Amino acid sequence: MTTAAEPQSLLLQMLAPEVRADPYPVYAQILAHGPMQLPGNNLTVFSSYADCDEVLRHPDASSDRLKSTAAQRAIADGAEARPFGPPGFLFLDPPDHTRLRWLVSKAFVPKVVKALEPDIVTMVDGLLREAEAGATFEAIGGLAYPLPVAVICRLLGVPLEDEPQFSAASALLAQSLDPFISVTGSAGSGFEERMQAARWLRGYLRELIARRRRDPGEDLMSGLIHVEESGDQLTEDEIVATCNLLLVAGHETTVNLIANAILALLRNDGQWAALAADPGRAAAVIEETLRHDPPVQLVGRIAGQDMTIGGERSDGGNVAGGVTVPKGDNILLLTAAAHRDPDHVDRPDEFDPDRPVIRHLGFGKGAHFCLGAPLARLEATLALTALTSRFPDAKLAAEPVYKPNVTLRGMSELSITLA
Ligand code: HEM
Fold first, then answer.
1. DSSP result, 131-186
2. Which of 296, 370, 409 is the pocket-test mutation for ligand 1 (most atoms within 8 Å of CB)?
3. Contact 371 CB / ligand 1 (< 6 Å)
4. Nearest CA to ligand 1 atom 2
5. Which GO terms describe its molecular function (predicted)?
6. For a Cys staple, 144 with which of 212, 258, 355, 361, CB 3.0–4.6 Å?
7. Which CATH number belongs to the domain containing residue 15 in this structure?
8. Residue whose CA lies nearest to ligand 1 atom number 39
């Protein structure tokens, strides 16, 4: 543990736009530094695999941002606690988290996800047929983005024609997951725009819910309305928040898994051709991408109580050593750094799908483990196997362009030469 100045400058480096293309050297410095505490910002940052894993499994680690010291202070100063109603269950603790997750998880059982497979195959095929028309292919706009968006719209019952309107709102909302507030103490630029986007998207969803009430379909939104109408388990505000969460998750994450995997396959000799020859490698390629260059780079928690992390627990339950996080602190878990922790993985900087074991926190861990993981894995598998087998000689055409987001790491442009 060192003085507060050094951690702050490392964290500011991590947020700097110029490191977006390759944040891993900064993560390596943060990892070498060890846990960092910025008492003035009520912030603790963990970056080792063992610490991140321990926090994610810790019963006192809360996902409810209202429990932070900063939020409590703002509320004491007169701020409205939840100006948009309840948040998505990603940001809730039990019992609300348990109840809402259980209701939605019924839509993500393996049978439902598997049933989407023929549609996903058709969508991938259609997108790649368009790709064949040109010598170069921009893989974000041509495949990695439109596929998950069409799938989540189908699942939720959101008309695809409305997509251009809410994709802009969803991109702005994805920025609100970045840790500007915790590290800099300010809300970051574009705060008003993000608030407006949040307001607009909720309004849009309310209208759509009203339409689905009159004219229900087979989709998840209609299913949630049905639950609400047949009992008191779910309020309209909770349906809005849940659909909002799923829509943004479906828009801003799988795109980056597909794109980050394409880039890794192209940058690492022989990997593209190996997948083209053996589609059975897809699962390992996807898990190694989730470790080596994960779409979600960090996860936040709030200390619900004073918590000691990384200490030695004796038989009597006493904890010696470790870092004590004061109740109310924001906790940043730099999972992308943890994935390259040499105490967790050999040759951490190498992209190697043939590692004997690939353990990662790319979909989180514990009670909030990603509900969309099976869907994301299926979409990525079908997209990557089709792309490599159809274009076995593809090459990187230009250096990719990265989006400004820190938490949800991804590219805005990834051009490849097809033949
Ligand atoms: C590659 C794509 C994806 C990645 C890397 C990813 C990653 C994650 C991570 C790391 C978490 C845990 C966050 C935390 O613990 O605070 C999470 C939660 C969640 N994800 Fe995903 N996700 C992906 C795709 C999706 C998709 C496609 C959906 C839905 C359509 C989805 C829905 C959710 C939901 C609802 C949660 C909250 C679960 C809870 O709080 O109980 N995700 N995801």
1. HTTSSEEEHIIIIITHHHHHHHHHHHT--GGGHHHHHHHHHHHHHTTSTHHHHHSS
2. 370
3. yes
4. 254
5. heme binding; iron ion binding; monooxygenase activity; oxidoreductase activity, acting on paired donors, with incorporation or reduction of molecular oxygen
6. 258
7. 1.10.630.10
8. 368
Q: Please state which of the ranges 112-116, 333-337, 371-375 shows the lowest mean pLDDT.
A: 112-116
The residue behind tokens 């948009």 is: 84
Q: Which domain holds residue 396?
A: 5-417
pLDDT tens profile 134-183: 889 999 999 999 999 999 999 999 988 888 887 888 888 888 788 877 77
Helix or strand run (H / E) with residue 195: helix 191-214
Q: Are strands 43-46 and 330-333 parallel, antiparallel or unpaired?
A: parallel
| CB-CB contact of 402 with 21 (8 Å) | yes
Beta carbon of 241 within 6 Å of any ligand 1 atom: no
Report how far residue 273's alpha carbon sits from residue 353's, in angstroms, rounded to the nearest whole number.
Answer: 13
Tell me the two tokens of residue 64. 């409810």
Q: Is the CB of 152 under 6 A from ligand 1?
A: yes
Please return the burial class of 283, using the count of CB atoms within 10 Å of its CB with bins 0-12, 13-18 and 19+. middle
> Side chain identity at 98, as an amino acid letter?
T
Distance CA 269, CA 275 (A): 12
What is the domain count for the chain?
1
How far CA 348 is from CA of 92, 292, 338, 340, in Å, comes to 33, 8, 10, 5
Q: Tokens for 345?
A: 């993985």
Helix (H, G, I), strand (E, B) or coil at 388: helix
Closest Cα to atom 40, ligand 1: which residue? 90
- Whether omega for the bond prior to residue 95 falls within 30 degrees of 0, making it cis, is yes
Q: Is the CB of 348 under 6 A from ligand 1?
A: no
Q: Which residue has the tokens 């990695």?
A: 144
